[in-house]
Amino acid sequence: MNIDENILKGITGITYDSRKVSKGNIFVCIKGEKSDGHNFAAQAAEKGAALIVSEKELNGNISCPHIVVKDTRLALAQLSAKFYDYPAQKLGLIGVTGTNGKTTVTHLIESIFEKAGTSCALIGTLGSRFSSLDDYASTDHTTPQASDLQQNLRVIVDKGIKRAVMEVSSHSLCQDRVAGCEFKGAVFTNLTQDHLDYHITMDNYFKAKAQLLELMQEDSYAITNADDEYFKGLKHTLSYGINNDADIKAENIKFSVNGSEFLCKTPSGSKQVKLQLTGQFNIYNVLTAIAVGIAEGIPFDTCIEAVEAIPGIPGRFEVVSREPLVIVDYAHTPNGLENILNAAKELVPDNGKLVCVFGCGGDRDVTKRPQMGRIAEDICDKVIITSDNPRTEDSQQIITDILTGIQELDSKKITVEVDRTIAIEQAIFNARPQDVIVLAGKGHETYQIVGTEKHHFDDREEAAKALQKVMK
Question: Could you report the per-residue pLDDT of 295-333, keeping only the tens digit for each?
Fold first, then answer.
């Protein structure tokens, strides 16, 4: 929409949530999966909205002006960017997109900037914060809705923070949540199957991610994964990888329970890197962050010092016990689960076994369920299939979908326990000190969604309780 200079005069704020409307606000009607903001326009007007923006003429008497636009999501983004005076233009905003690795990469980038003496805010799955010393503030979505995002960016600018790094989801790109932002850096991690309930095809999913390149500043840069089938062909400033030719490359990789190390080769030289993080997926994450640091002109040595100092990210290959080794991870896609299990398998001693507890989310892409079942069967010695945010689907049906991908239903190897607490207890009660247990799917989450309600649930807490019972 074309924003008339006078439209924002006297406006006190912008919202898409009728419950948050206060006097002088613009209320933008957004049609979501579960509710339609158009149905709450009258309520917003009664609460003091100064203007209502909708995609259709509103029924009934609305006691304030309203305008009709073609796309209210885009209008929300444009109005919000204008209202908060385009804060992204005043930041070196870096967007990180891809299926896996976004959270870890953003935290690594944050660490690199702070090691270089540059303040850096972070926005993503775990929440938002102004520095690594701050607690996370909840954002509800990986990438916040446009009005919340622009307000957050405005606060970041007003605090004098020079950089912000943000996870940019495919949903946020399709839904114009980041319209009105200008990015200094676009970072692409990888593209594997996820969200096909929304995007339908991988090609659509890729095109959604690639939209980030359309939001770049003139003096911007793009970082791509040379080993990724989809992203390797994107126009880029620097590439990173392990298997193919890349500007930033890892060689001579070694893993252990305490971390990993590799030789990092760049156009300006090579350095040995010793990480507290382990797994090949984390080598990719670190290469990505180093590439950003180099693109930003940060010294190579500073980048290495920063990534070496990171002990881990909440819910990302997070170790909660050593004997047995219990790892909690957010992996909830076929590729993510495969990466985590392969990394965990590297840590299993010759006399140990790899055990995995996992499920699949309800009301999400059903085609990945059998794939994840097959992956767990192929890699693990023992698999316990359980629930993971069933939402409005029947947990048993989700588990049945997973089981269709398993070739041999051997009860000694594959078991089912719908109750996730009991499933975690079974894995830990039956484990030996030399075994490795992966609790996959929930990671940092502290809830289980059953129906439409959230109930407190934390894999890390449940594992700790089970371990305490074993010790008694």
Answer: 999 999 999 999 999 998 999 999 999 999 999 999 999
Report the predicted TM-score, pTM, of the whole model to 2 decimal places.
0.91
- Determine which helix (DSSP H) or strand (DSSP E) holds 395, and give its type and residue range: helix 395-403
Per-residue pLDDT of 11-26, as tens digits, reads 999 999 999 999 999 9
In the structure encoding, which two tokens stand for residue 130, read together? 């102004």
Distance CA 13, CA 47 (A): 13
Confidence of residue 76 (pLDDT cuts 50, 70, 90): very high
Q: Are 327 and 439 in contact (CB under 8 A)?
A: yes
Q: Which of 87, 98, 4 is nearest to 53 (CA)?
A: 4
At residue 61's C-alpha, the angle toward residues 57 and 65, to 5°, is 65
Is residue 237 within 8 A of residue 295, CB to CB? The reply is: yes
CB 285 within 8 A of CB 104: yes
3.40.50.150, 3.90.1150.10, 3.40.1190.10, 3.40.50.2000: which CATH number matches 87-245+276-308?
3.40.1190.10
> What does the DSSP assignment read for 132-179?
TTSPPBP-SSSS--HHHHHHHHHHHHHTT--EEEEE--HHHHHTTTTT
Q: How far is CA 163 from the centre of its chain?
A: 19
Task: Give the pLDDT of residue 33.
Answer: 75
Q: Are the CB atoms for 346 and 255 separated by under 8 Å?
A: yes
Q: Which CATH architecture has domain 5-83?
A: 3-Layer(aba) Sandwich (3.40)
The first and second tokens of residue 328, run together, are 């909690």
**Total residues belonging to the chain:** 472
* CATH number of the domain located at residue range(s) 318-471 in this protein: 3.90.190.20
Domain boundaries, the chain: 5-83, 87-245+276-308, 318-471
CA angle 156, 157, 161 (to 5 degrees): 70
Please report the pLDDT score of residue 316 as a whole number: 94
Location of structure tokens 């350095």? 271
